Amino acid sequence: MKENIEKLWKLINTSNKILLINHIRMDMDAFWSLSAMYDILKQLWKNVRAINDELPLASYAFTWYNQIIEPDLDINNFNPELIISFDAASLDQLWNSYKDNINIFNNTDFFVIDHHRTNPWFGKINIINPEYSSTCELTYDILNQLNMIKYITPKIATSLISWIYTDTNIFYNSNTTSNTHYVTWKLLEAWADFRKPYFEFYKKKTFEQSKLWWEVLANKMKISENWKVVWATIPESLFKKVWAEDRQLTWLISEFFANIEWVEICFISHEIKWNLVKTSFRSTPNYDTSMLASFFWWWWHKQAAGFSSKKTLKEVEKEILEKIKKEFNL
Fold first, then answer.
1. Last residue of some domain: 151, 180, 201?
2. pLDDT tens digits, one per residue of 8-32
3. pLDDT computed for residue 244 by the predictor
4. Domain carrying residue 39
5. What is the rounded distance in angstroms from the CA atom of residue 155 to the CA atom of residue 153?
6. Are 35 and 104 in a shared domain?
7. Contacts of 36 (CB under 8 A, 6+ apart)
8. Residue 70 and residue 156 share a domain
9. Rounded mean pLDDT of 40-63?
10. pTM of the shown model
11. 222 backbone dihedrals φ, ψ, rounded to 5°
12. Same structural domain for residues 103 and 165?
């Protein structure tokens, strides 16, 4: 990893126009790892731009970085000398931003920073380490080895520390390590506002989100006969009914489904645009959800995994339940 970090530093030094990209349906880890690098590259007087097919959720705005993502950026016109991907587990996750510009990606120095163990090392140069709790934690250590910690402002520190509450579920998840706590301490020393992200993601709920969660918990949640599996399938019409975004389902599976007594595995499948069905899994340490996600292929960790499918909600639900029965006898 050290050798590739040195290569990254050389590429940053020799490149002026740098493009940053993260995965479609960007979560907090993808957004803030990219945002931190964006801010630092700006301090280094680089011409840096950031792209994703979608804008980040409005709830990310408390870190003041929401305006950096440019879904309509003309990559060909920008003509980057270096491209850096954050938190994407595969090329497919870069979606149309990649598909519409394959020649540019193929003919440009393409660097991948990620922590998913399923990553096929799709960049020309890769820094991929599944031992990290998040790409943000990995990004901090990269900055540290590049002697760039001096560029971490309170704003950047607050952005990076936000993954502490998201990818580790406030130090609860098994991916929390001593290094996680060490990086948290160093970010607090850099004056990260540790209260703000906790309020934004664990306390605050919009009216639309509250209605969405109530609808799912009251009318969509199902449980197996042995009380070991809980799940919900959610059609696009429900989001329209309560005027909510599908990404406002974030935390429902972790806060409610995964904490139901006796439950070992839970999942939520819901319709999203592009005629896809997105599924998220959670499990206790007794079960490895990566086995489930591997049948459908997208991204996974041991106790948190997910995938997208072009099949219908009913087909996805049926296949998942059959796999759970076959693989885990639940």
1. 201
2. 999 999 999 999 999 988 888 899 8
3. 92
4. 2-201
5. 5
6. yes
7. 136, 139, 143, 152, 156, 159, 160
8. yes
9. 89
10. 0.84
11. -125, 160
12. yes
